[in-house]
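Human:
Focus on the backbone:
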Amino acid sequence: MYILGISAWYHDSAACLIKDGVIVAAAQEERFTRKKHDDGFPSHAMSYCLEEAGISADQLDSIVFYDKPFVKFERLLETYLAFAPRGFRSFAASMPLWIKDKLFQKSMIVKELEQSFGKEVKWREKLLFSEHHLSHAASAFYPSPFERAAVLTLDGVGEWTTTSLAIGNGNELKVHREIHFPHSLGLLYSAFTYYTGFKVNSGEYKVMGLAPYGEPKYVDVIKDNLIDIAEDGSFHLNMDYFNYCTGLTMTNGKFDALFGGPPRQSESELTQKEMDLAASVQKVTEEVVLKLARGVAKETGERNLCLAGGVALNCVANGVLLREKIFDKIWIQPAAGDAGGALGAALGAYHIMHDKPRAVSTSRDAMEGAYLGPVFGDTEISTSLTAIGAKFELISDDQVTEQTAQALADGMAVGWMQGRMEFGPRALGGRSIIADPRSPAMQKQLNLKVKYRESFRPFAPSVLAEHVSDWFDLEEDSPYMLIVADVAKDKRIEMNETQNALFGIDKLNVPRSEIPAITHVDYSARVQTVHEDTNPRYHAVIKRFYDKTQCPLVVNTSFNVRGEPIVCTPEDAFRCFMGTELDVLVVGNCILRKTEQDPTLVENYKDKYELD
């Protein structure tokens, strides 16, 4: 049985194909269109999924959309009526779009399917709809290594629900408790994302990265005015301070007055205030997550926990939750945001709607390391690179390992494109930029000369799984880079009195460990454990680097520049390589060195990125 799950028309559209309950392929639409967070119908991602499986569209048994448009419309309409006459401007702006298109999404989806695959198939008969939070919960439970578990989903909002508790057992999954809009932990975090000058639905991870530079001095202000948190983790927001129900912004004048001024303008200088606000909302988020987890454990008696929804991408909160040992085991869906809804919709349809049995994965989980996207063979890579004027050398597998490890040891920044593309927001060694973590200058260099982004942003380590506990305070696997852990104490460099007195961004230039390029200012790191069974080539390169340096980890950041999706094809990789200060590019068995490329091409690509 083939089932295609799709998510679209909010942000991060995606498609996922399963066969008899096994994940065959999954990808976000942005990777094909090159439009960051593309919310359009995922026609390219769907076509890729079918191509990967080697099937035609008429072989699909079901197509499942990840939420229910009519319920979402009901929520919008009731919200406007509840706050009337406030919010008329927002109401007037959104209703024509809903009445013209979104209200009739079943017809829209059928039309899109016909355009993509033809009218011969009776699409309307095969089309199913899941609920938003059920899709999230299914994406977390069904691929997990647990026969039974509690499933906690936290995001902005889907239909009415913002937070849900489900219980999974075998192939059964039932939602037991919900918190409804407008009370949302995700929207609280997004309000501070907006107020600190970052883009909602994409800048939340910047707030998380900024938090360690600040002090959580606004925690009491937030808890006294914005959110009431019960002991079981349930919460209630004071809507007097927010504008997202009725307006075109997240916060209002009362919020501004509470925190002493208007929101920071995007791209303006970051101040200590923004850092302290980030630290404060992060601390409140962690408190809510911990209380929710304790409440769930007490209420259900379950010993395993699965997490999904956008808030589950807050790897700092995940690390805190793990260390508290409230549950025996925790598993987090790597595509925890809306893209993962496509996966959950497909799996939910298979196990719940079609009542098919579930086989629990006997390996780490059923996600195949999240390597579920397109792969390119060396012939295809060579043809593509030749066509765009690249100068490259085709080398053996052993040479790929040796030459890449040596380039890293020599302090070079390497673009690394190997195997299947990752599904979800993290680069996991399939489409990564990698470098030497021992370099004190590497973090700043990569941010400013390669990624073209804010200098405060931290980088993650990819560490050989067998060495993780030697370098980090972490005993668990973290294959999806979803857990923050502290650097081991014997690897740290203690700060002197003068350095400890520094504030904000001034902390950035002080090396804090033997691996400063991945050590954040609070001695933490967002860890990815690399396993030989899921990514043997990446594991081999890091192991060879370890042989040369006695350091079993590398810097890993996504292979893209600011504002651009992670690369998908050899052409994408070459463009990014040429337009940045990367030294080496390794695509399959093809290796490219910047010094050997046509200088005219180098300048042309650099001009493109500077103009963008």
Summary: Residues 278 and 357 are 44 Å apart (CA to CA). The longest helix spans residues 272-300. The chain has a mean pLDDT of 91.
